[in-house]
């Protein structure tokens, strides 16, 4: 006798399972980090300082201790998001820390879904699932939501912008993609580094490339114009998004001693952000002019470290890097120029950090593409091994069929026993 089942068994879609595992994994690590005070110590960084200024003084200012003037040291989106959390749940308290952690966790987990969509649309569904699960369970990726920084948001925005960009085929879609890339630039302008190469490779063979390209660029520029005008009016300088580009090159190659966080009474606090950046720009150009070999050598060292950090996970990062570049070569060989939008991420985005300085969080925004290409290489390797195993099994079966065994050979041999005289008599009778 079969009894009815109270709760019928339902199959969970693997994509939903992937998102759920990523969410729970990051929540478990994040709550432990929150309990030991791992987020509250970050209230002193420039993101939290600007967010406090937005809430308490209604000004995008005061990035560093000892300076309360206007700033463009950080892009506007993430500090404004943190300020909204501070305004709703309180400044620098545990409730805000929990909400900010949850926000980063959700963004990081949602990135796995975007990775799956990219893989399914442009590589294969299996590649998308492998890459998405690798992202969801990555021991390095699970640490990034713990940072009070735009790291998780940048990874989500860049992967989503790439997906929308690759799907854009009409004027309206290109306008939306351009606006989304503009929003990504307001999260982190470094995300725009691979865009020119991506745009050329994507539209080169399209008959309406000029029209689509102009619409895309116009939408992107319109997204940046309001913030650029604000910087021009308040800081009296041309900063499309951030002001610290030349300063970061200076800190990475000349000295870090002048960084605004080094001292509350440093040069930055004394002369203001605009003059500080202008002075460091002149000194940086002078340094590169006088020491070009040293600058190139240091940049090459940073280029190697970019693909290996964090060194605490060196075996994992080394394998991931090798698989990623192997996948890039295989994809370029198999699909030709259609692979260039993804490959542009690997070639042009890191250049921003090759000339400045390297941290693991700087590479995180392009890691969705890194995981996709690594998964592509792993799937191709698995297919090759499976094909080799199948052929070897087939060869063994053929050899077993074509080679008779010893018993069969003995039975099939003709009898050559000579006749005797009695045999002859019997035959005659």
Compact overview of the structure:
With 429 residues, this protein is mainly alpha-helical.
Protein described:
- The chain is an all-alpha fold.
- It has a domain at 14-44 and 93-242 and 291-389.
- Helices cover 69% and strands 0% of the residues.
- It has 20 helices and no strands.
- The radius of gyration is 31 Å and the shape is globular.
Average pLDDT works out at 89
Question: Count of helices?
Answer: 20
How many beta-strand runs?
0
* Strand residue percentage: under 5%
- Straight-line distance between termini: 79 Å
**Rg (C-alpha, Å):** 31 Å
Which sequence of SSEs, written as H and E, runs from N to C?
A: HHHHHHHHHHHHHHHHHHHH
Question: Sheet with the most strands?
Answer: none
Low-confidence stretches: 1-7, 406-413, 415-429
- Overall shape: it is globular
Helix content class: 55-70%
Structural class: mainly alpha
